[in-house]
């Protein structure tokens, strides 16, 4: 079998990574490197630039099954120790804080407030009675992190006279 552009484009359209690698090896006459596959996909693809770059990166540097299994094992060990949950809670709290600081002040603004066991983002006028409040992370074990977020929230409320 010989290399043809139509067969190559059909393999790209079908997202068949094995066929793309095989066709690139036919084109260059030896086992291709990832860079060669990437360059071939960019050169011979007809789609828009952004899609081409993503597809080329996926075809050339796509995750192998072994790498995915290793990542899943790592995530499972994190979850077993409770680290993943704590990490996602802190990430959610930081996302809410970033949203508070970047958006304009409105009736729907949510500021950080301490509860008994968790950090909440709720309306400054309703406080904990806000039925739309968001619970983000545990206070226990994250005292320093939670105190910094609450301090930033208080500074925001003082600045905007809330």
Task: List its traits.
162 residues; mainly alpha; 2 domains; three-stranded antiparallel β-sheet; 7 helices; elongated
Secondary-structure blueprint:
Blueprint: H1 5-13, H2 17-28, H3 34-44, H4 49-61, H5 65-81, H6 83-102, E1 111-114, E2 118-122, E3 134-138, H7 143-159
Antiparallel strand pairs: 1-2, 2-3
Helix pairs in contact: 1-2, 3-4, 6-7
Question: In words, what does this structure look like?
Answer:
The protein is mainly α and 162 residues long. It folds into 2 domains: 5-62, no CATH class; 82-159, no CATH class. The chain has 7 helices and 3 strands; from the N terminus they run H-H-H-H-H-H-E-E-E-H. It has helices at residues 5-13, 17-28, 34-44, 49-61, 65-81, 83-102, 143-159, and strands at residues 111-114, 118-122, 134-138. Helix 1 (5-13) runs antiparallel to helix 2 (17-28), helix 3 runs antiparallel to helix 4 (49-61) and helix 6 (83-102) packs parallel to helix 7 (143-159). The radius of gyration is 25 Å and the shape is elongated.
């Amino acid at each position: 079998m010989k290399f043809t552009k139509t067969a190559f484009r059909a393999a790209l359209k079908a997202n068949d990574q094995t066929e793309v690698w095989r066709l690139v090896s036919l084109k260059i006459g030896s086992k291709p490197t990832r860079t060669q596959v990437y360059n071939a996909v960019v050169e011979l693809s007809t789609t828009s630039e952004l899609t081409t770059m993503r597809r080329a990166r996926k075809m050339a540097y796509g995750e192998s099954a072994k790498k995915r299994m290793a990542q899943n094992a790592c995530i499972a060990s994190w979850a077993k120790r409770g680290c993943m949950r704590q990490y996602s809670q802190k990430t959610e709290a930081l996302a809410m804080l970033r949203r508070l600081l970047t958006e304009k002040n409105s009736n729907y603004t949510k500021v950080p407030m301490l509860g008994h066991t968790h950090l909440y983002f709720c309306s400054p006028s309703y406080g904990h009675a806000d039925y739309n409040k968001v619970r983000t992370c545990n206070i226990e074990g994250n005292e320093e992190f939670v105190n910094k977020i609450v301090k930033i929230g208080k500074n925001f409320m003082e600045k905007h006279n809330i």
